[in-house]
Design goal:
It contains no helices and 10 strands. The strands form 2 sheets. It has a 6-stranded mixed β-sheet, with no helix packed on it. The protein is globular, with a radius of gyration of 13 Å. The mean pLDDT is 95.
Length: 118
């Protein structure tokens, strides 16, 4: 089963940017839909963005216009460029495949912490 490891999180001021990366242990070329999820303290996990093998993307309302998801099947990598960050974006971010109901089927990785604070 594919394992993932996220990186790129950190502490950033409001209005700042971060680029998250996700390295998969196996080939993702046969995984049609991949995505980023996040979970803030005391809140349920939520989908952030998804991308298909064909490059079609979808974003949660809070992410649209600020975040950009991309993938590189040759490197088995998934990315999330986040701009204009706000304190409400503070969460642990995870990458995974996207199954039925926008639920991941792969085991979640450790995630990467994003903290937006002045």
């Amino acid at each position: 089963q594919v394992q993932v490891a996220e990186s790129g999180g950190g502490l950033v001021q409001p209005g700042g940017s971060l680029r998250l990366s996700c390295a998969a242990s196996g080939s993702i070329v046969t995984t049609n839909s991949m995505g980023w999820y996040r979970q803030a303290p005391g809140k349920k996990r939520e989908i952030v963005a998804t991308i298909t093998n064909g490059g079609s993307t979808n974003y949660a309302d809070f992410a649209r216009g600020r975040f950009t998801i991309s993938r590189d099947n040759t490197k088995n990598m998934l990315y999330l460029q986040m701009n204009a960050l706000t304190p409400e974006d503070t969460a642990v971010y995870y990458c995974s495949d996207v199954g039925y109901g926008l639920v991941p089927t792969w085991p979640l990785g450790p995630g990467t912490q994003v903290t937006v604070s002045s």
